[in-house]
Design brief:
With 283 residues, this protein is an alpha/beta fold. It has a single domain (8-282), classed as Metal-dependent hydrolases (TIM Barrel). It contains 13 helices and eight strands. The chain has helices at residues 20-25, 40-45, 62-67, 70-77, 96-112, 125-134, 149-158, 166-170, 206-222, 224-228, 243-246, 261-272, 275-282; strands spanning 8-13, 29-33, 51-55, 82-87, 117-120, 140-143, 161-164, 183-185. It has an eight-stranded parallel beta sheet, sandwiched between helices. Helix 6 packs parallel to helix 7 and helix 12 (261-272) crosses helix 13. The chain is globular. The structure holds zinc ion. Zinc ion binds next to strand 1.
Length: 283
Amino acid sequence: MPSPLPPRDAHAHVLTGIAPSELLALNAVIFAVTREPSEWRAALARQDPTTVWGIGAHPGVTSALQAFDPDVFAATLAQATLVGEVGLDGRTRTSAAQQRTVFEAVLRRTAADPRPVSVHSAAATKAVLDAMERNPQPGIILHWWRGSRAETARAIEYGCWFSLNGSEAGDPKVLDQLPPERVLTETDFPHTRRQDRRAAKPGAVVTIEAALHECGTSTIGGSQAGVAQPPLASRGNRPASADAARNPATDARDRPLSRQPFALLSLNDVVVCGPRQQVRQLL
Ligand SMILES: [Zn+2]
């Protein structure tokens, strides 16, 4: 049965000047991350009904790390729904010390004022976990996670969400280890196009959706209530307000994972009804 819900892309790169009609034409709920503080103002000024814009400072971008100011971040966070892309990267030439300073400053702030935080951890999975554990908080979404099994167990224990893309589908590392209710789908558009030709635009999560369905059908069906929990609500004190969370549709097991009721929650509550207030309420 075709799903009435749009796919969800929990991590994609979109230019902040994109025409609103182009985003709407994607027919997907997009978490659009930014790389540099210089993008934040334009991102937050947008009013896209199905796109949530994040504020980020990418660890691989020197100018982003240099421009990061913790006070400006704290002030901007008050206006923001989502934080990302932030994190650590062990493969780039940017200063490791500067990466750590920025990431710790971000985590300190979001620990005090939680948001969904899309975290980059390429070749730095242990260091990212260490930093997170120094700043415990709900809402961490590990993007394109490639940690070891022991590290993944640590991240699950911490309460992380995981956004997986077509690269994980082609070369699975953690797919079979993750609780289905903690998994989100993403494209990291445009960076996964080489590994996943079908990720040709934001929201094109069909490859990872298929892999999740294949490896976890029985698990997903068997833990339907868990899947139906909106991820960002599960660690908060407040109950989820969406009917979809309380009354999962009976055909939930037939839906691709990225279109499970959280997508409905994203679309109706988080995005359409006012992202900032709703997401904060969920945390
Ligand atoms: Zn990215």
